[in-house]
Amino acid sequence: MKEVSGGVCAPKGFKAGGIWCGIKASSKKRDLSLIFSEKCCNAAAVFTTNSVKAASVLVSQEHIAGGKLHAIISNSGNANACTGDAGLLAARKMAALIANEFALSEKHVAVASTGVIGVPFPIAAVENSIEALANSLSGDEAGHSAALEAIMTTDTRKKDISVEIEIDGLPVRIGGMTKGSGMIHPNMATMLCFLTCDIEMPLDLLQSSLRQAVKKSFNRLTVDGDTSTNDTVIIMANGASGASVLSENSTAYSIFAEALESVCISLTKKMARDGEGAAKLLTVNVNGAADESAAETMAKAVASSSLVKTACFGADANWGRILCAMGYSGADFNPAETSVSFISEGEEIIVCKNGHALPFSEEKAKELLSREEINISINAGKGKGSASVWGCDLSYDYVKINGDYRS
Question: What predicted TM-score, i.e. pTM, was given to this entire model?
Answer without folding.
Answer: 0.86
